[in-house]
Write a structure and sequence with these properties.
By secondary structure, this protein is of the alpha/beta class. The chain has 16 helices and 17 strands. The protein has a domain of 292 residues: Metal-dependent hydrolases (TIM Barrel), CATH 3.20.20.140. The longest helix has 36 residues. The chain is globular.
């Protein structure tokens, strides 16, 4: 090859290499631009956590993330998948379990102001609680007591509650100010106009859901129960009531109507898919079959029931029959504490003891009842109870660094048998961080405790023998 020809080839080769280099740089620039375009902006990103979504897999993600935009979960997955999200706020959940907020399906939060009273009094409800309430309960007491109780719940990992108590407007105000999800059971009277106005006032509220509230088969007239059942159907709302909780309740209904409490309520049209039965301790086999047939859900209040020596609700039989069961604390005069984490171990252990079988009620089933089971009981499983894209962002982070939580081989086992409410580090409700690193962000707990202490002096004045 002649020298001019070699020079020509060299020149062409350099030109081609240059062109290739330019193309590579252009492609790299486009890839970078595409990467920037692919970045997804969200409001809140939880990273580096042990994610326990409580989805159908019941599995965990060792180093996972949860992306939240507005009120809803956008994505859940391993850390590598979370790299594409850019958040206004990021929470490092390192050393924590990221899981759905727990759902307290039956409580009376305002009764925190009475906590510790009448604990060893026989027939406490009729001889002690009702007379005391008649003397001191008013709107102010319910407001401060409810705030106090809901703070305790959030500090213990509860993000939703079903509350039944007088002056429901005060309970509603407390939940709204705190930023808590609340299903408020409005105590029904014969005139339904106040309740209809209450329902209308909450239209569009993302956190508060009105519920038709009835006390019990023995405290309500059959006419009121029948009318309330029709009202709940008309408005498409849940209804709830204490059911099959008291021995005198069974005796009274048997004598008057020759029916069990479940049979009695069914005859009045109350049982159905939107009815939540609280307690349901004293059930026959036919009662269980009837609850399953009607699609009724049950709020299981283990600690309150055993403390009052009433017995253990037949939850294994209920679940086997297909009845949805959520967990509740009952009021703080009954179970004393309002967190669900403290209830989990009792639920597992007492059912094992009651059935003389250590294999029943495994830890994962107990956690399920505290989360997705509660959501199903409220007919909100499409929105609550698990961490899945599209669901409402009710999330808690439970610390795993406390002595009792180390080592951690199984998340559900540690939550049920080792965790305490003080292990709850952060709580998010409707996408809003309401507690971070154990610090409440929406109200001042010290102020609330001070108000409750003031109310305690009022209570002492009407209960002279309180020590």
């Amino acid at each position: 090859m002649t020298l001019p020809l070699r020079k020509c080839f060299a020149t062409c080769r350099h030109a081609v290499l240059g062109a290739c280099l330019m193309l590579a740089m252009f492609a790299s620039a486009r890839a970078g631009a595409a990467s920037e375009t692919a970045a997804v902006k969200v409001d809140l990103l939880i990273t580096n956590g042990l994610v326990f979504p409580m989805d159908a897999s019941r599995g965990t993600i060792t180093n996972g993330f949860v992306a939240i935009d507005g009120a809803r979960i956008v994505a859940v997955g391993p850390a590598a998948d979370g790299a594409r999200y850019r958040a206004t706020k990021t929470i490092d959940a390192r050393g924590g379990i990221v899981m759905p907020g727990m759902i307290n399906t039956h409580t009376h939060a305002a009764m925190t102001v009475f906590r510790g009273l009448g604990d060893d009094v026989a027939d406490r409800l009729r001889r002690f609680i009702w007379p005391l309430e008649a003397k001191v309960v008013d709107a102010e007491l319910v407001y401060w007591g409810s705030l106090h109780g809901m703070i305790e719940m959030i500090e213990g990992g509860v993000t939703s509650l079903v509350d039944s108590y007088p002056f429901p407007e005060s309970t509603t105000r407390a939940a709204q100010e705190l930023g808590m999800r609340a299903f408020i059971a409005y105590p029904m009277k014969d005139d339904f106009a106040p309740f209809r106005a209450y329902v209308e006032s909450l239209r569009g509220d993302p956190l508060i859901t009105p519920v038709v509230g009835l006390h019990s088969p023995y405290a309500e007239t059959p006419e009121r129960i029948r009318a309330a059942a029709k009202l709940a159907d008309e408005l498409g709302l849940l209804s709830t009531m204490h059911v099959a909780e008291m021995d005198f309740e069974l005796k009274e209904l048997r004598e008057k109507h020759q029916q069990t409490p479940i049979e009695y309520l069914d005859s009045l049209g109350l049982l159905g898919p939107r009815f939540l039965a609280a307690h349901a301790i004293f059930l026959t086999e036919s009662d269980i079959a009837l609850l399953a047939q009607r699609g009724v859900a049950v709020a299981h209040n283990m600690v309150a029931n055993i403390k009052s020596a009433k017995g253990v609700a037949p939850v294994l039989k209920l679940r086997a029959a297909g009845v949805t069961v959520g967990l509740g604390t009952d009021g703080p005069m009954s179970g004393n504490t309002l967190d669900l984490i403290g209830q989990l171990g009792y639920v597992a252990k007492l059912h094992k003891l009651d059935n003389k079988d250590r294999t029943v009620m495994p830890a994962i089933d107990v956690v399920e009842m505290a989360t997705l089971g509660g959501a199903r009981a409220l007919r909100r499983e499409a929105q609550l109870g698990s961490l899945e894209p599209g669901k409402l962002a009710d999330v808690i982070i439970v610390d795993t660094e406390s002595t009792a939580m180390v080592p951690l081989y199984d998340v559900a086992t540690n939550l049920v048998y080792s965790a305490s409410p003080r292990d709850v580090r952060t709580a998010i409700i409707q996408g809003r961080v309401v507690m971070e690193d154990r610090r409440l962000l929406t109200v001042d707990p010290a102020l609330v405790r001070g108000k409750v202490r003031e109310i305690m002096q009022r209570v002492r004045a009407v209960v002279p023998d309180v020590k």
